[in-house]
Amino acid sequence: MMRTAMAAAALALSLPTAAHAAEQPAAVPQVLPMGAAVSALPLAVEDRNGYQRTSFKHWNAGDIPADGCNTRAEVLLSEAVEYPEIGPGCALTGGVWWSYYDDTTVTEASKLDIDHMVPLAEAWDSGASSWTAKRREAYANDQGQLSSLVAVTARSNRSKADQDPAEWLPPAPDALCRYGAEWTATKLRWGLAVDGAERERLLDIAADCGGTEVEFTPAP
Q1: Second label for 32, Cα 20 to 30 Å away, from 87, 162, 184, 188?
Q2: Is the entire prediction scored with pTM above 0.70?
Q3: Interatomic CA distance for residues 119 and 115, integer angstroms
Q4: Residue 56 CB partners (closer than 8 Å, separation 6+)
Q5: How many angstroms from the chain centroid is the CA of residue 61?
Q6: Is the peptide bond prior to 59 cis by the omega test (within 30 degrees of 0)?
Q7: Digit-coded pLDDT (tens) for 84-99
């Protein structure tokens, strides 16, 4: 898939030189049963004090700046079920996408949002408030893990807003296990905490999703 290729290309660009490879080993993907993954998340009280959406620069030039497409467009291209035509300025025409939150097929890119699996405000609450601006930008444009950014219908993304799983879950019945696993994977990747209600809801989901695994790679 193109998204996998994008991620591989980005990883290749970010790899350390041979002189420093021993000092900066590449992160290794990790896989945990969902219940164990949720239990591995640090528990903390959330604090939204000082949050501004502009603290997370997005969308930037994406993983492949030379392609003329920003992060939003690169995610749309990578997730297309049927590939769109790419016009000047990376304008997308045609194409087909599937929004797993609400089990909906979409044929116009303009009707899709790129959802931050863990919303920017939630990330701020959970630890990102202490990050540098550069790290927050990396988070907001993260294509290094497929679950971090997802193309979904605008209505489902706006229904979700900045709510965590204790407050909102996708309406499609078959989406629950995937959503819980991808939320957990994103928080583990970025070292973000959960609050008590969020943790309990994720554990409830894990209990109903036997065999579901969480795969994540710690962010650089």
Answers
A1: 162
A2: yes
A3: 7
A4: 120, 123, 128, 136, 137, 139, 140
A5: 17
A6: yes
A7: 999 999 999 999 999 9
